[in-house]
């Protein structure tokens, strides 16, 4: 099982020309879906809004986008988008539906995999459930250009596992001191327990580009001193009252007000993402996460 997991399920490119154990390139390598996990140490920093607006903007730029709401027990992406899917992740975990059955269409024809809300057991998936979910997800994303994973906030096992299975990890932080402290705590766990070597930092709710850069500078200084992880400045989203106005109407600021401060930031971010090459393996200890799951499933 460990060979199958490391050789097939991880939807990330390996060395050109070979798969696991010297095998030919896999289906996932040829499809080259780019997988980004968007996470945060603290709730309330606007992570879900960022995922939704970024996904919508990428769709408008011609990309096929799928979003997984990985805040499994307290998901609210569907509410933010104003959609009411009949099925969600809880039905998949219970074996009542396949992952493909719960796909819903969001604005800009984004494909949404909705989470449940108020189901506590979904916040503590076991190793077998995670392996099955990630295997099903791997098969589902054929033909998708970008998979955005909207994790829960914090440092729970679900957050860490969904983060490290992605090609690239985007840590969202706001200028608040508590958000900065919690972002560092998240990166500390990623570095020390999961051997992650890099992550991207996105500063949300910034008053100005200068304030966003200062937040990055603070985190870069402390991570460079105490952690073996490189933090890349990925950009900022400026504070904008129109974003909150859109939330009240269950509409995205990028859809309603594309020329607003926040709307222009999302457009810049989406264009930079498309123009930049995806991260390549090795990414820390490539098999650390999967070995952990397999050991947990087979003591």
Report what the structure shows.
The protein is α/β, with parallel strands linked by helices. It has one domain: P-loop containing nucleotide triphosphate hydrolases (Rossmann fold). It has 13 helices and eight strands. It has an eight-stranded mixed sheet with strand order 3-4-2-5-1-6-7-8, with helices on both faces. A hairpin with a 5-residue loop joins strand 3 and strand 4. Helix 3 crosses helix 12 and helix 6 crosses helix 13. The N terminus and C terminus are likely disordered.
Features:
299 residues; alpha/beta; Rossmann fold; 8-stranded mixed β-sheet; globular; disordered C terminus
What's a quick, concise take on this entry?
This protein has helices spanning 2-9, 27-31, 47-60, 77-81, 89-93, 127-140, 157-164, 177-194, 209-226, 241-248, 253-256, 261-275, 288-297; strands at 34-40, 65-70, 104-105, 111-113, 146-153, 168-173, 198-206, 230-238. The chain has 299 residues and is of the alpha/beta class. Helix 9 links the parallel strand 7 (198-206) and strand 8 (230-238).
User: How would you name the oligomeric state of the polypeptide chains in this document?
Assistant: single chain
CATH architecture: 3-Layer(aba) Sandwich
* Fold-level CATH name: Rossmann fold
CATH hierarchy, class = Alpha Beta
Helix count equals: 13
Report strand order across the widest sheet.
Answer: 3-4-2-5-1-6-7-8
Helix and strand element order: HHEHEHHEEHEHEHEHEHHHH
Strand content: 15-25%
Please identify which CATH superfamily we are dealing with.
P-loop containing nucleotide triphosphate hydrolases
Q: Characterize the main sheet.
A: 8 strands, mixed
């Amino acid at each position: 099982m460990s060979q199958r997991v490391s050789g097939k399920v991880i939807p990330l490119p390996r060395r050109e020309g070979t798969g696991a154990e010297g095998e030919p390139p896999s289906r996932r390598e040829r499809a080259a879906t780019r997988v980004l996990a968007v996470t945060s140490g603290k709730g309330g920093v606007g992570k879900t809004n960022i995922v939704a607006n970024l996904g919508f903007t990428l769709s408008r730029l011609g990309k096929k986008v799928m979003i997984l709401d990985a805040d499994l027990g307290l998901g609210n992406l569907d509410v933010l988008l104003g959609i009411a899917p009949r099925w969600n992740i809880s039905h998949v975990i219970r074996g009542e539906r396949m992952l493909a059955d719960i796909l819903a269409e969001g604005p800009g024809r984004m494909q949404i995999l909705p989470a449940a809300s108020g189901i506590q057991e979904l916040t503590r998936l076991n190793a077998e459930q995670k392996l099955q979910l990630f295997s099903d997800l791997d098969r589902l994303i054929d033909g998708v250009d970008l998979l955005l994973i909207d994790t829960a906030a914090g440092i729970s096992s679900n957050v860490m596992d969904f983060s490290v299975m992605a090609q690239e990890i985007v840590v969202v932080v706001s200028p608040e001191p508590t958000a900065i402290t919690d972002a560092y705590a998240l990166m500390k766990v990623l570095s020390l327990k999961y051997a992650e070597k890099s992550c991207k930092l996105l500063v949300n709710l910034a008053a100005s580009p200068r304030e966003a850069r200062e937040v990055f500078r603070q985190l870069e200084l402390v991570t460079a001193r105490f952690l073996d992880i490189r933090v890349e400045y990925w950009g900022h989203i400026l504070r904008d009252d129109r974003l909150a106005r859109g939330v009240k109407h269950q509409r995205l600021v990028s859809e309603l007000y594309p020329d607003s401060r926040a709307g222009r930031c999302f457009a810049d971010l989406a264009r930079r993402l498309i123009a930049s090459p995806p991260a390549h393996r090795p990414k820390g200890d490539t098999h650390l996460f999967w070995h952990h799951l397999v050991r947990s499933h087979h003591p």
